[in-house]
């Protein structure tokens, strides 16, 4: 995993787990790595992993069962919530950046439409 210096590592770890869920690499009820194992795998401070796990528990993304480990919460609606949240963040960033280039309303829609067509043709 490559880290981006512009965003706290613990938030990037949370996004990594969310993306694994969306892609089906993790499923509801799956046990995730222990904090120590994850810290070793990612080569980060264990306190960083601990913070990520604590935040994910607060988001009802994972739950820790004493003596058994940390598991993805059994909330079927969670996947759709994560997809919508991540898509919204991507769109917010995209529109902020595109508007900073001077594009407005209809021109932005034209650009999006052109790229959508281009991507469809590449498939």
TrEMBL record:
Keyword Glycoprotein (UniProt): no
Record keywords, A-Z: DNA-binding, Transcription, Transcription regulation
Cleavable signal peptide: none
DNA-binding keyword on record: yes
InterPro entries: Tscrpt_reg_HTH_GntR
Domain HTH gntR-type: 7-75
Designated name of the protein: GntR family transcriptional regulator
Organism of derivation: Alkaliphilus flagellatus
């Amino acid at each position: 995993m490559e880290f981006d210096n512009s965003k706290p590592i613990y938030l990037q770890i949370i996004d990594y787990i969310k993306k694994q869920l969306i892609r089906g690499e993790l499923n509801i009820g799956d046990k995730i790595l222990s904090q120590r194992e994850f810290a070793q795998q990612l080569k980060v401070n264990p306190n960083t992993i601990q913070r990520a796990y604590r935040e994910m528990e607060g988001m009802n993304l994972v739950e820790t069962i004493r003596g058994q480990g940390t598991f993805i919460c059994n909330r079927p609606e969670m996947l759709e919530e994560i997809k919508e949240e991540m898509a919204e963040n991507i769109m917010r960033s995209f529109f902020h950046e595109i508007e900073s280039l001077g594009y407005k309303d209809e021109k932005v829609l034209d650009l999006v439409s052109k790229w959508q067509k281009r991507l469809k043709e590449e498939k």
